[in-house]
Design a protein that fits this description.
The complex is a heterodimer. By secondary structure, chain A is mainly β. Chain A has one helix at 6-9; strands at residues 13-15, 20-23, 29-35, 42-48, 53-59, 66-69, 91-96, 104-109, 115-119, 124-125, 132-137, 143-148, 155-160, 169-170, 178-184, 191-197, 200-206, 214-215, 223-228, 234-240, 245-251, 259-266, 273-274, 280-285, 294-298, 301-309, 312-313, 318-322, 328-334, 336-337, 347-353. In chain A, strands 1, 19, 20, 21, 22, 23, 24, 25 and 26 form a 9-stranded mixed β-sheet that branches. In chain A, strands 2-31-29-28 form a 4-stranded antiparallel β-sheet, with no helix packed on it. A 4-stranded antiparallel β-sheet of chain A has the order 3-4-5-6, with no helix packed on it. Chain B has 7 helices and 24 strands. Chain B has helices at 2-13, 18-30, 34-46, 54-66, 70-83, 87-103, 131-146; strands at residues 104-111, 117-118, 122-124, 149-150, 153-158, 160-164, 167-171, 176-181, 198-208, 217-218, 220-231, 234-242, 245-247, 255-257, 261-270, 277-290, 295-298, 303-306, 313-315, 319-335, 340-355, 359-362, 370-374, 380-395. The chains are: A mainly beta, B alpha+beta.
Chain lengths: 357, 396
C-alpha cells in the first residue's frame, strides 16, 4: 500500500445516526444500490456467486416490502406454447428513469442464453442476437443508452423511449473495442463511456449525440466508470494506479484538466458517487487497516476529506440521494457492524448524512 | 401468394384429428397466418382429445390476443389456467391473464345515434414503453382504419392516453371508459349524415276546436310523412301532411274535403339515456290548405261573408293556414347492420292560423256557382288542434 497522505491521518470524522439494515439475502452478497431520482425508491442486487445468479430488487426505504424484479416472460410474443420455466438467471444493471416517468430499465438473461434489456413490466427492448447490457436512462427521460454485442465487440446504442418499437440507433462503431459504462451528463446532451480495447481502457466522450466521439485526455493508464456530477459538467472516474485505483475529476465545462481527488479507492459499481449538489464525492477507501472506510471528499478541494463514521465495516457499493424530507441519505453495502455481529455476506444499509463540510 | 395457398393444403394433408389441428396451428403461427391458426386451434379444443389440453388453450389465448380479440384471449387463458397440469403451466397461464388484466382496459365508444357506422382513427397520446404493446396498438389502428365499425362498440386498448377521432380518452387497467363521439368526431372522413337519415310515416286522427269557424269539425283522419337529418345535436326535418276534413255543414249530414295538404319544417332533439325507447321533442311549422272553415254570408251578388256577423247562408271555403306545432314522439327501434326500424306514437299540439280568401266562388249542389266576398277584417282566424298518430320510422 502506498504511503497515506499525512493529512489523511487527521481526517475529521462525522458521526452518523446508526445505520439500519434494510436488506439481506442468505447466501448472497448485496451490491449496486441505486436510488431513484426522487429518493423514494431504491434498487439493489443480490449476487449468488456460487449459483451464478443475480437477483434484482426494488423497494421503498422504510417500507416493509421489497419486490423482486423478474424478467417479463410472457409475454405478448407467440411461442410454441408454454415456455420452459426459467431457473435463476441474471437480472441486474438497473437504471432509473426520471421520477416523472416512474419506470426503470434493466438487463436480464433470457431463455436463449442471451441478455436483453427490459423496462419494468414490459417485453424486451429491441431484442437481437448478442448480449445487451449497461443501460443508462438519460436524465431528461428521452433516451436509453446501452451496450450491445449485436455488432462489433460491443457498441453503444440509443433507444428513443418515444419509439421503443423502432430499431435502436447505433452511436459507436469501433470494431476493435467494446464501449461500456455509458454515463449521461446532467443536461442529457453528452455521453461518456469506457472504450475497452486490447490497448487498454480509456474514456471517450460524445459532446452531443450527433457529434463525433473523442477520447478524453488524461493521465496515462486505465480509466473506468465515468460519472457525471448532477450539476454542471464535471466528470469523475477511476484511474488505475500502481496498486488499485485513484479517483479523478475533470471540469469539462472549464479547462478540463484532470485533478486527483482521492487515492486508493474501491470501485463503485455505478461509478464515483456525487452528492446531489455536485460538491462532494462519496467513496470507499481501499484501506484494510481501517476496514475500507467511507469518506466524503470535496471535489473542488480534495484536501477536505471527511470520514463518515457509519459504524460498519467492509464497505462496498454505495449511492446517495436527497429524499423528500430534504435530508441526504446514503445507501451502501457493508460486511457488518464494526462491533460484533455477523460479517458473512454484504448487507444493505441505510443512514442519513449530515451536512458535509 | 402461391405458398400461402399451398400451405393450407399441406396442412390439411397432415390429418384433421386433434394432433393434426395442433400441428397445423403451429405451422400457421410460424408463418404468421393467425386467422388460420385460430381456426385450427378452435378445432383442436373442440376435439375431445384437445378439450382439456392447456397447451392448446394457451396457444389459442395468445393467437386471439395477437388478433385483437381480448375477450376471447381472456376466456382461453382462463381455460388454460383451469386445465394446467403442473405448476409451471399454471404460473404461465395466470401470468398471461394477469398481463391482460394489468395492461388493458376498454373504451366504450358510442354516439347519440345507435347503429351508426363510422371509421375510427386511433392515435396513441402517451408513452408506451412496451414494444410489444406498441405493435399491438399499431395493429389495432390498422384494423380500425380498414373498415367501419358500428356504434356502440367496446374497444380494448393498452393502458394509456389516446385520441379517437380527435377526442381524448384515457384507458385505465381493468376498467371501461365511456367516449361519446359528437359532430365532426363521428368520422375522420366526414360526418356520415346520410347514414342518419330517418323517414317517418304516421296515420291517426286530428281535431280542431276553440273557434266558431271550426266548431262543426269532426275528428278526421290524418296522415303524416317526414324526412329527418341530424344537425349537430338537433334533428331537422321536412314534413308533409294530408288531413282530409270531415265536418257537419249547416244543412246537415257529414261532408268531407280531401284537400288538406301542408308542407312544413321541424326541429327536434332526441332525449338521452332513455334506453330502448326513443323520446323526441320537436317544434315546427307547416303551411298549406285548410278546408271546411264555416263562414256565414248574406246572400246577394256577390254574397257578403264574415266570420263574425250573422248570415242567411253558410259557405265552407278553402283557407290558407300556418300551423305552428309542438310534438312529442315515442318509439322503439330495432337496429340491423345498416338500418334501424321503429314503431311508436306521436302526439302533436298545434294552432292553425288561417286566412280566408277575399273572394271566390261557391256553389250549392247541382246549382250554378255564385261569387262571395269576405269582408275586410274578418278573414283571419285561429284555432287550436290536436293530433294523435301511430308512427313508423326507418333510419338508414
Amino acid at each position: 500500500m502506498r504511503p497515506i497522505l499525512l493529512s489523511a491521518l487527521l481526517l475529521p470524522t462525522l458521526a452518523l445516526a446508526s445505520p439500519v439494515v434494510i436488506a439481506a439475502r442468505e447466501g448472497a452478497n448485496l451490491q449496486r444500490p441505486v436510488w431513484s431520482e426522487d429518493g423514494e425508491k431504491i434498487s439493489w442486487e443480490a449476487n449468488f456467486h456460487d449459483k451464478k445468479q443475480i437477483e434484482l430488487w426494488v423497494g421503498e426505504p422504510g417500507g416493509d416490502h421489497a419486490t423482486q424484479v423478474r424478467r417479463s416472460s410472457q409475454s405478448t410474443g407467440l411461442t410454441a406454447g408454454f415456455a420452459a420455466p426459467s431457473t435463476g438467471g441474471v437480472v441486474h444493471e438497473l437504471s432509473w428513469a426520471p421520477a416523472a416517468i416512474g419506470h426503470f430499465v434493466y438487463a436480464a438473461s433470457t431463455d436463449q442464453a442471451d441478455y436483453d434489456l427490459f423496462i419494468d413490466g414490459a417485453s424486451a427492448l429491441s431484442p437481437a442476437p448478442g448480449a445487451d447490457g449497461s443501460p443508462a436512462w438519460s436524465p431528461d427521460g428521452r433516451y436509453i443508452a446501452f451496450t450491445s454485442a449485436r455488432t462489433g465487440q460491443g457498441d453503444l446504442y440509443l433507444i428513443d423511449v418515444r419509439a421503443v418499437e423502432a430499431p435502436p440507433r447505433q452511436l459507436t462503431t469501433a470494431p476493435e473495442s467494446s464501449e461500456i459504462f455509458a454515463a449521461w451528463s446532467a443536461d442529457s446532451a453528452s455521453l461518456a463511456w469506457v472504450g475497452h480495447s486490447p490497448g487498454g481502457d480509456s474514456l471517450w466522450l460524445l459532446d452531443t449525440l450527433n457529434g463525433a466521439p473523442h477520447q478524453l485526455s488524461g493521465p496515462k493508464g486505465e480509466q473506468t466508470r465515468p460519472s457525471w456530477a448532477p450539476t454542471g459538467r464535471k466528470l469523475a472516474w477511476y484511474q488505475a494506479a500502481e496498486q488499485g485505483f485513484d479517483l479523478y475529476v475533470a471540469d469539462l465545462g472549464g479547462a478540463g484538466t484532470p485533478a486527483l481527488v482521492a487515492r486508493d479507492v474501491v470501485l463503485n459499481a455505478t461509478g464515483p458517487t456525487w452528492t446531489p449538489d455536485g460538491q462532494h464525492l462519496i467513496t470507499v477507501l481501499d484501506d484494510d487497516d481501517r476496514y475500507d472506510p467511507v469518506v466524503a471528499v470535496r471535489a473542488a478541494d480534495p484536501s477536505k476529506v471527511t470520514t463518515l463514521a457509519l459504524g460498519t465495516v467492509g464497505h462496498g457499493d454505495l449511492d446517495v440521494a436527497r429524499r423528500a424530507d430534504g435530508a441526504l441519505w446514503i445507501a451502501y453495502v457493508a460486511q457488518g457492524a464494526a462491533t460484533g455481529g455477523d460479517r458473512d455476506f454484504k448487507r444493505l444499509y441505510l443512514a442519513p448524512l449530515p451536512a458535509l463540510p | 401468394m402461391i405458398h400461402s395457398l399451398l400451405l393450407p393444403c399441406l396442412a390439411l394433408a397432415a390429418g384433421e384429428g386433434y394432433a393434426g389441428h395442433m400441428d397445423n396451428a403451429r405451422l400457421f403461427i410460424r408463418k404468421a397466418y393467425l386467422e388460420d391458426a385460430e381456426l385450427e386451434l378452435e378445432a383442436a379444443v373442440a376435439n375431445p382429445e384437445g378439450r382439456l389440453d392447456p397447451e392448446a388453450w394457451f396457444l389459442l389465448a395468445k393467437v386471439r390476443f395477437e388478433r385483437g380479440d381480448l375477450a376471447g384471449a381472456r376466456d382461453a387463458a382462463g381455460r388454460a389456467h383451469t386445465y394446467s397440469r403442473d405448476e409451471a403451466q399454471l404460473l404461465e397461464a395466470s401470468s398471461f391473464s394477469r398481463f391482460l388484466d394489468q395492461n388493458f382496459g376498454e373504451v366504450r365508444i358510442r354516439s347519440r345515434w345507435e347503429g351508426l357506422q363510422v371509421h375510427l382513427d386511433l392515435e396513441l397520446a402517451s408513452l408506451l414503453f412496451d414494444p410489444a404493446l406498441k405493435q399491438w396498438v399499431e395493429s389495432a389502428r390498422a384494423r380500425l382504419a380498414a373498415d367501419r365499425v358500428m356504434l356502440p362498440v367496446n374497444l380494448p386498448l393498452p393502458v394509456g392516453s389516446y385520441r379517437i377521432n380527435g377526442e381524448e380518452v384515457t384507458v385505465v387497467a381493468g376498467a371501461t371508459t365511456a367516449l361519446e363521439l359528437r359532430g365532426g368526431a363521428l368520422s375522420a372522413k366526414g360526418i356520415p349524415t346520410a347514414q342518419l337519415a330517418q323517414g317517418e310515416l304516421g296515420v291517426g286522427l286530428s281535431h280542431w276546436f276553440g273557434h266558431r269557424a271550426v266548431g262543426h269539425f269532426i275528428p278526421s283522419p290524418a296522415m303524416h310523412a317526414a324526412y329527418s337529418l341530424p344537425v349537430s345535436a338537433l334533428i331537422a326535418g321536412l314534413t308533409l301532411d294530408w288531413s282530409p276534413r270531415l265536418y257537419q255543414p249547416a244543412s246537415g249530414g257529414v261532408s268531407a274535403s280531401a284537400a288538406g295538404w301542408a308542407l312544413g319544417l321541424r326541429l327536434g332533439r332526441e332525449l338521452e339515456h332513455t334506453g330502448a325507447v326513443r323520446l323526441r321533442i320537436s317544434g315546427g311549422v307547416r303551411g298549406g290548405t285548410f278546408p271546411g272553415v264555416e263562414v256565414s254570408c248574406l246572400s246577394g251578388d256577390p254574397s257578403r261573408c264574415s266570420l263574425d256577423a250573422p248570415g242567411d247562408l253558410m259557405i265552407y271555403p278553402m283557407s290558407w293556414a300556418w300551423i305552428p306545432t309542438g310534438e312529442l314522439s315515442i318509439d322503439t327501434a330495432r337496429h340491423r347492420r345498416t338500418t334501424s326500424a321503429g314503431l311508436g306514437v306521436k302526439v302533436l299540439g298545434e294552432v292553425a292560423i288561417g286566412s280566408l280568401p277575399s273572394e271566390g266562388e261557391a256553389a250549392f249542389a247541382r246549382e250554378a256557382p255564385f261569387t262571395f266576398q269576405v269582408l275586410e277584417g274578418s278573414r283571419l282566424w285561429a284555432a287550436p288542434g290536436i293530433r294523435f298518430l301511430f308512427n313508423a320510422t326507418l333510419a338508414f
